[in-house]
Amino acid sequence: MSNIKPIPRFTVITLGVSDMRASIAFYEALGFSRRMRTTGEAVAFFDTGGTVIALFPWDQLASDATLPDQPRPTSFRGVTLAWNCSSVEEVDTVLDFAIACGASLLKSAHKTDYGGYSGYFADPDNHAWEVVVAPGIEVGDDRRVHLPD
């Protein structure tokens, strides 16, 4: 066994969907660039521009997304996806755009108790997305989230 410690990386979030064609169309409509189209409808890969993982208590995350915590329903499994934005205006634009693409609004955008601005939408399979601008989290020109040390 090697003594070299691997560099951790988080590379793929795989969402289970009920209708591949509809879900592919939804994520393309949101503007994510599909890659490896040779997979057809067996699996679809989208370039998201970068990924960050965050940890948050299950009950608080459910509450923030206005989803029930108990009993733990199949519609919420303690995970949300996030679309970080650079401004309040961008949050509003993204939420409106997602709804126009077929998303359902879970929670209207609002000022948060931590000084940010956030709202939630659900994709066609009810995967919850937070659209947020948060203090101290910068979205660069490279579309990636930059976190302070």
UniProtKB/TrEMBL annotation:
Residues 9-134 form the VOC domain. One of its GO terms (molecular function) is lyase activity. This is Lactoylglutathione lyase. Transmembrane segments: none annotated. It comes from the Bacteria. Keywords: Lyase. Pfam families: Glyoxalase. InterPro entries: Glyas_Bleomycin-R_OHBP_Dase (IPR029068), Glyas_Fos-R_dOase_dom (IPR004360), VOC_core (IPR037523).
